[in-house]
Design brief:
With 256 residues, this protein is of the alpha/beta class. The chain is built from nine helices and ten strands. It has a domain of 158 residues: Rossmann fold (3-Layer(aba) Sandwich). It binds adenosine-5'-triphosphate. The site of adenosine-5'-triphosphate (ATP) has 11 residues, from strand 2 and helix 1.
Amino acid sequence: MRASPDAPALRLTGLVKRFAHKLAVDHVSLEVPRGSFFGLVGPNGAGKTTSLSMAVGLLRPDAGRAEVFGQDMWSAPDGAKALVGVLPDGLALPERLTGREALTYLGLLRGLAEDVVARRAEELLSVLELDGAGQTLVIEYSTGMRKKLGLATALLHAPRLLVLDEPFEAVDPVSAATIKTILRGFVAGGGSIVLSSHVMALVEQLCDHVAVIDQGRVAAAGTLDEVRGRRSLEDAFVGLVGDPAGGVKELSWLSR
Ligand SMILES: Nc1ncnc2c1ncn2[C@@H]1O[C@H](COP(=O)(O)OP(=O)(O)OP(=O)(O)O)[C@@H](O)[C@H]1O
């Protein structure tokens, strides 16, 4: 199925998700321009993972729409899902397969030809410095290795949009540098990326657009410069979502 030529890489319109009495996502609307590197930031429990899960077809919204290059994620999932590579929060990987077997299995499920999967799996394992781990069972992987294998599975079918939930969490600095290079190359080659992160310096370093989510709502969105103004992103973030009274609670019983 063809993507619509003028549609943004990702458009979320009025997304809503409620868990029992908790309104986790409260009418989130966002537009991720084509070719952008888009950072999604927000405090713990703000609704980032829930929004991204609805955006990529992992969690059905109570209301609203998610479109990938103009293809509706929920009414035309095959078209939309072919265009997107996802690194979800808490990715479940096939634990009893080796890294290479897991990539082969997931690539074949994606409908890729066997020789294409073999070639790409080899390259991904090598670029992500998982060569040796290609022979190791996933159950023996460290958290960072899992993240890298998850990224490899997201890239395997050459998507046009990557949606990455905390891709740098638990990844060592050398691997992080490798991942940054891969992601920058992906954008330079015409791809689009949305990533969530708590690391403001990383978002400032990588992203050209950013959205701040707070209590299930979009508190600010735009280019990096529009959102941070003349401040650092961290200061802008704290200004947008911090305690309005500016109070820092102390644990009095810890002081002697
Ligand atoms: N499956 C669920 N059942 C019930 N409540 C949930 C569920 N998933 C998320 N929530 C709640 O929805 C809200 C948003 O959670 P979400 O995981 O989307 O936040 P987040 O911004 O990704 O947080 P973090 O930065 O801590 O990962 C939180 O209050 C969370 O407790």
